[in-house]
């Protein structure tokens, strides 16, 4: 039997929705037991890459490997094992709207673990407590805030203590304090359970706190990857533009008249 | 804030003095203003923004329109701007904004389109067949595989689909039995054979009308709601969430509904059978003086068990049609809330069409049998 553990690697991967790839020639190594952050401008294809890694979208070319297992040799049984080992937070949380937060967090346990229902719910409550939601366990997703739905999504992703964890913008919409707590939680999980964590994020502070490995996407491909210091010191224009953006053309509000205006170099 | 424009035509230059909020100008005011300016007679038109308190992107756009209109009329136009803020705003917004590229007109030739459609249709049929196959397999094996884990959902669906639809089905069935009896009675009276109303109503209802009508009502009620539910889950990535958790969406969302409907639709059909006959009895008794006992006896003579069972078998087939069409449309949903609405409508229309097609095939086969 093939053991599904180890680095996630992609070889010549191309991903997209039609025939036209959004990202191509993606050669990644996402180290096992570490936190990898995927960065890039809005719309550059981070979520698309994640969906392809999750096998929700068919790769347009190339291969993905989980440890020794190539997705090309996946049969139904192996795919099921792989699913059992992955936890996912979608960008829009994707909670089940007809279930309470607790039922959402308990869902993977009930469906996949074979534990009795009461025990599954107890475990789920524990996970909800980790993300600070135990007080809201019986609320429906529609009745809590966007940030709370995100956190419940994280609890659901963590339910089975998966060896692979994929999070699409976990700290978007969270205040600095809660965001820091979630980052701390991710670091703990990574250390304690040697979980391979892949995070798409825009929060540079969060990147500083959690990233062991950075992947910078730009221009329909990977612009840079490696340990954070290396990537930031690489002098790659896409990286410098991301970490210290030029503000020349940013609209400013004039303090005197409240008008939006642009600071442009004067012509005369 | 009001917008005022003053034109002073007697100076060396024609000065257009704008005051107030340019963006508050009434629709058409700019055109009128262009007409008010005399000439063109070689003099320069100067637009003075001195009195304009506030200039934003909209104001600049209005100004651009005004200048363009004057230039089109043949004037030489200049702006007089003193305020630095106004200058900055005009410079910022007065540029040509890059236009997004619109997809060009489709240059497909007819044959190409036809080919595309054929491939699409082929794909759709393949997907539909696969879905039907998976749904049936899943629905049949579910009780053995999951040890009643999904039975809660099945039970709830039975209640939602069955109990909710019963009054509606009963009402419609009664009316159909009633109408059918009146229509046929009118004809049979001329032959003095009004008792045959019972035969006609009984046979038509059990073999044809009750299964068909019930299926169409249920497609409208429950098929649409299944499509809307799956479609909404699809667009909010909940279906993807199920998939990555290793929970088969067909097994979780569709199969329990099919098992419920396989029970509910035949039961509703029986209700429709009985109530429609009651409608016939009512007409027979009230209009044609047929005693209910006699009517019922005539019905039992005319309608055989095989006719009723044939109708129930049809109902089972219709359940499969309703659920698979609804699920297919649900999973095909894309494009947000609009997509959900579109596919829900399609689900009902297609289910009804397929129900009638399947009914036709069924009836042809049954009548062809000895
Ligand atoms: N379902 C879809 N069908 C077709 N194209 C899509 C679809 N989803 C996204 N795209 C396209 O793919 C590109 C990348 O989208 P993606 O969602 O991966 O961006 P992202 O990097 O995650 O952005 P953000 O940071 O805003 O979430 C976009 O240009 C978008 O137009
Ligand atoms: Mg995204």
Please provide the count of β strands of chain A: 12
* Arithmetic mean pLDDT of chain A: 86
Shape of chain B: elongated
Strand order of the main beta sheet of chain B, please? 1-2-3-4
Please work out how many helical segments of chain B DSSP would assign: 11
Cofactors and ligands = adenosine-5'-triphosphate, magnesium ion
CATH class of the domain at 32-41 and 87-243 in chain A: Alpha Beta
The major sheet of chain A is characterized as:
6 strands, mixed
Helix/sheet category of chain B: alpha/beta
The low-confidence parts of chain A are 248-268
Major sheet strand order of chain A: 6-7-8-3-9-10
Short description:
The complex is a heterodimer of chains A (268) and B (370). By secondary structure, chain A is of the alpha/beta class. In chain A, 35% of the residues lie in helices and 22% in strands.
Walk me through what this model shows:
The complex is a heterodimer of chains A (268) and B (370). With 268 residues, chain A is α/β, with parallel strands linked by helices. Chain A has a domain of 167 residues: 3-Layer(aba) Sandwich (Rossmann fold), CATH 3.40.50. Helices cover 35% and strands 22% of the residues of chain A. Chain A has 9 helices and 12 strands. In chain A, helix 6 links the parallel strand 7 and strand 8. In chain A, helix 3 packs parallel to helix 5. Chain B has 370 residues and is an alpha/beta fold. Chain B folds into 2 domains: 101 residues, Transcription Regulator spoIIAA, CATH 3.30.750.24; 218 residues, no CATH class. In chain B, strands 1-2-3-4 form a 4-stranded mixed β-sheet. Chain B is elongated and about 110 Å long. The termini of chain B are far apart. Chains A and B meet through helix 2, helix 3 and strand 12 of A and helix 3 and helix 7 of B. The complex binds adenosine-5'-triphosphate (ATP) and magnesium ion. The site of magnesium ion has 4 residues of chain A, from helix 1.
